Amino acid sequence: MHLPSVDGVADVFKALADPTRRTILDELTERTGQTLFELCGRLSTKHGLASSRQAISQHLDVLEAAGLVETRREGRYKFHYLDTTPLEQIAVRWLDRTAAPQSGASTTNGDTTNVDTTTGE
Amino acid sequence: MHLPSVDGVADVFKALADPTRRTILDELTERTGQTLFELCGRLSTKHGLASSRQAISQHLDVLEAAGLVETRREGRYKFHYLDTTPLEQIAVRWLDRTAAPQSGASTTNGDTTNVDTTTGE
DNA sequence: TTGACATGCAAGTATGCACTTGCCTAGTGT
DNA sequence: ACACTAGGCAAGTGCATACTTGCATGTCAA
Fold first, then answer.
1. Nearest CB to B19: which of A77, A79, A121?
2. Which domain range does residue A65 map to?
3. Alpha carbons A66 and A8: distance in angstroms, whole number
4. CB B47 to CB A119 under 8 A?
5. Reduced to 3 DSSP states, what percent helix, strand and coil does chain B have, rounded to the nearest 5?
6. pLDDT, position B118
7. Which of A33, A89, B48, B112 has the greatest number of C-beta atoms within 10 Å?
8. Region A49-78 average pLDDT
């Protein structure tokens, strides 16, 4: 069981807010399971991204904290795998409201129980 | 005339990055066409959000710039309407790549240069 | 008109975040 | 052993942004 941090939803949105991280997801979509160095090379070559190794490493940490990237260590290599599961619930939050109760209805599916009550952030 | 800037996608992601703005979208999903004061009241009452009027107004500006909220002026009232159109293209970017090409995002995979030095699983 | 209401604008503050810099640990091959 | 490689850690810098403060604009009712 992968434990998402206390507030997983907010982490996903924050992770997607950065264009570099979105490009990383693009690259991992084309080829999942890349190492940090692989990503650095391909990002700079194919995507014209000139970020340092440390910068990309930190971005990967954010993506992993958001649950969008899973890592597996193997020797001195660390492979990064894309996980799109958190993405399936973020857009439908405002899209799929067709059969939603208007007011006063008890939580039918618990969707509205936003773990996102980090108003204080 | 709010032109969708060259990279309107980034604006959408940035707009969604803030928890307060996400709550505003939640509220507008339940009842679209609210005024600023209506939103302030309901946000503080139902969502426990203690943001000032000016803060919410600035958030609405961001949401409008992202194309997620449209406004209509009527007398001294300004109504805010939810527009979920930009949301339909953000998550599918990494979910199904067989779909139409995105804007700006170089989803065009020229070649899959096999730098497969290691096991690719 | 006057005054209350709904909203807008602009400068200032302050926290967050992306990125750098520098050094460190661990695995690999000779 | 050694050098090389892949990656990690932590403090510091600079910019972006969320929020405040204060006043201005415009609309409606009396």
1. A121
2. 8-92
3. 6
4. yes
5. 45, 10, 45
6. 28
7. A33
8. 96
